[in-house]
Design goal:
- β5, α7 (242-248) and β6 form a beta-alpha-beta unit.
- The chain has 613 residues and is an alpha/beta fold.
- It has helices at 7-36, 42-54, 100-103, 157-161, 188-196, 218-223, 242-248, 288-296, 312-315, 323-339, 417-420, 429-449, 470-475, 494-499, 528-531, 538-548, 561-571, 606-612, and strands at residues 147-149, 169-171, 174-176, 208-212, 229-234, 253-255, 270-276, 297-306, 342-348, 351-356, 460-463, 481-487, 504-507, 520-526, 549-560, 576-582, 591-598.
- The protein has 18 helices and 17 strands.
- The strands form three sheets. Strands 6-5-4-7-8-10-9 form a seven-stranded mixed beta sheet, with helices on both faces.
- Among the domains are: 185-389, Vaccinia Virus protein VP39 (Rossmann fold, 3-Layer(aba) Sandwich), CATH 3.40.50; 412-598, Rossmann fold (3-Layer(aba) Sandwich), CATH 3.40.50.
- It is found in: Endomembrane system; Golgi apparatus membrane; Membrane.
- It is a single-pass type II membrane protein; Single-pass membrane protein.
Length: 613
């Protein structure tokens, strides 16, 4: 049977359908353009949506502000993971690898008992270190340089022992730091002014400094306003809490000692080093202590000695030593310095200053006992040796061994000599610049997540896996400083960090860090947990982070999502408020960011608990 439909009718309607579709397309195109131009009513909605998308990484439910005056401790009713209990109040200042009881079982010879001695696996504390009762967020910088709350570091012994030397004074509920020191009781500023008459501190030539036996780190504290970063160290000894005071002030410092083990810093790291009555026996053990300072001092760098035996004619009776003994010691010191290729530049009153030659070509007296240059940065638990670390070779007498550095701040982003010379495997000048761009992007993202980053709220920062120092460089500000940690199992890049004018230290995160509890405001860890997967217990690393983080301090962990899921489960029982955030480039990137805030809580005793009941 034939169809009754008229085929010509189909052909007539087809052009009409095409024109209708084209007309609708044109209409919606014009409507969209009109709205995006800002003329339509839909513009306000579009702006709100755009703003919502722009601000999507801000975490409204995660507060980074200080609230410890009104925060109550609420135990989770349904813990999703193992809950870590508070440690006993006696552990409030626990330093795992520098505990007094363990230290006293080691020899006193060469200060071995004051070096790192970490607990065995079965002796590790797996609990949360409490803050002392009354703990308060430290004063913001720069006020923190001069004041600290007594409740945070409740130790008065230095106020009595060092009263004449103006180290620290106790006033009401705070400690005041007048800026004095054993060899500069009138203040660090006047002392630094005298140094600056010889050392080019003001022009950016000197950026990194080392203070061996720092006390409460007033030298480092007053160098900061001159744009010099000092790494200060002192042992945990009868000068109670001196390094803890330094960090409470917002000044870089670690627990450490010049003993039998190499210092945890790379060769040619510091532009300047000093001993201000540090009482290190520089000429003992064939001069190995001064040789170790020489290893970490840059070619052209300066060494300052104020204290025995300098000015022995004035102080020999005070020091209860004979003139002959002190004169012989200074003569031996002068000869040792000359053998290290140092030139004496200044001696007046209590201060002597030497300068290390820029290369070995101009040495008057060359040492015959040289260390292996290839092992100059192999320092972790390595014994010191009485040998001189050789300098890299040069082509002429005016060339700086290892490469000349630009003055700070140009040095911060200039290509470091170690990279320019191809000494860092896999890193080129181009990849270094790309790394800088990447970290500027990352840090901008962090600031959108936590808008307190870059303010005085966070003074003491730590990067647990610093790489080339990109995180610290992107954050560079007088409001904060960053302890750049290069793990001992990672690529050795700490020399690059120092060449940029930043400071840092080698460390193995399977062990406790050389600091007191509650000494950092913000801790950053990039790829750290992937690096240590299978090397040690991730739980132990997180508990160590909790120990050194201040109450209401912040954590930023960047890693692969599967690793962060494990981390997030552990921190669920650690009194941290934590959230996972997508990578800056979107949810499809497997790398994620875990941000957290440590809750405020303090130690309680049985008496406190009974009173509350």
């Amino acid at each position: 049977m034939g169809s009754k439909t008229n085929p010509s009718g189909h052909r007539a309607r087809r052009p009409l359908s095409i024109f209708a579709v084209l007309g609708l397309c044109c209409f919606f195109y014009l409507l969209g353009a009109w709205q995006r131009s800002g003329s339509g009513k839909g513009d306000n909605l579009a702006l709100k949506v755009n703003k919502l998308m722009t601000d999507c990484t801000v975490l409204p439910n995660l507060s980074f502000e200080s609230h410890h005056n009104d925060v109550e401790i609420v135990e989770p009713s349904e813990p999703k993971a193992k809950v870590f209990k508070p440690c006993d109040v006696k552990y409030r200042d626990y330093t795992p690898c520098q505990e007094q009881d363990r230290a006293m079982t080691f020899p006193r010879e060469n200060m071995i008992y004051r070096e790192r001695h970490c607990p065995a696996e079965e002796e590790k504390l797996r609990c949360l270190i409490p803050a002392p009762k009354g703990y308060t967020t430290p004063f913001p910088w720069p006020k923190s340089r001069d004041y600290a709350y007594y409740a945070n570091v409740p130790y008065k012994s230095l106020t009595v022992e060092k009263a004449v030397q103006n180290w620290v004074q106790f006033q009401g509920n705070v400690f005041k730091f007048p800026g004095g020191g054993t060899m500069f009781p009138q203040g660090a500023d006047a002392y630094i002014d005298e140094l600056a008459s010889v050392i080019p501190i003001a022009d950016g030539s000197v950026r990194t400094a080392l203070d061996t036996g720092c006390g409460v780190a007033s030298w480092g504290a007053y160098l900061l306003k001159r744009n010099v970063l000092a790494m200060s160290f002192a042992p945990k000894d009868n000068h109670e809490a001196q390094v803890q005071f330094a960090l409470e002030r917002g000044v870089p410092a670690v627990i450490g000692v010049l003993g039998s083990i190499r210092l945890p810093y790379p060769s040619r790291a510091f532009d300047m080093a000093q001993c201000s009555r540090c009482l290190i026996p520089w000429t003992s053990n064939e001069g190995e202590y001064l040789m170790e300072v020489d290893r970490v001092l840059r070619p052209g760098g300066y060494w300052i000695l104020s204290g025995p035996p300098i000015n022995w004619k004035t102080y020999y009776q005070t020091w209860k030593r004979s003139k002959e003994d002190l004169k012989a010691e200074q003569t031996k010191l002068e000869e040792l310095a000359e053998s290290l290729c140092w030139e004496k530049k200044y001696e007046k009153g209590d201060i002597a200053i030497w300068r290390k030659k820029i290369n070995a070509e101009s040495c008057k007296r060359k040492s015959s006992n040289l260390c292996d240059l290839a092992n100059a940065d192999d320092v972790w638990y390595q014994k010191m040796e009485a040998c001189k670390t050789p300098l890299p070779e040069v082509t002429n007498k005016n060339e700086v061994a290892g490469g000349e550095l630009k003055k700070f701040p140009a040095r911060l982003f200039a290509v470091p000599p170690r990279i320019a010379q191809g000494n860092v495997p896999g890193v080129t000048a181009k990849s270094y610049q790309e790394d800088n761009k990447l970290w500027k992007k990352h840090v901008n993202s962090y600031k959108r997540i936590n808008q307190l980053i870059g303010t005085t709220r966070y003074r003491n920062l730590m990067d647990m896996n610093a790489g080339l120092g990109g995180f610290a460089a992107a954050l560079d500000s007088p409001k904060s400083w960053v302890m750049n940690v290069v793990p001992t199992i990672a690529e050795n890049t700490l020399g690059v960090v120092y060449e940029r004018g930043l400071i840092g230290i080698y460390h193995d995160w399977c062990e406790g860090f050389s600091t007191y509890p509650r000494t950092y405001d913000l801790i950053h860890a990039n790829g750290l947990f992937s690096l240590y997967r299978g090397k040690c217990n991730l739980e132990d690393i997180l508990l160590e982070m909790d120990r050194i983080l201040r109450p209401e301090g912040a954590i930023i962990i960047r890693d692969e999502v599967d690793v962060l899921n494990k981390v997030k489960k552990i921190v669920g029982g650690m009194r941290w408020e934590a959230k996972m955030v997508d990578h800056e480039d979107g949810p499809l990137v497997p790398e994620k960011i875990l941000v957290a805030v440590k809750e405020y809580w303090v130690a309680t005793t049985k008496k406190d608990s009974s009173n509350e009941e």
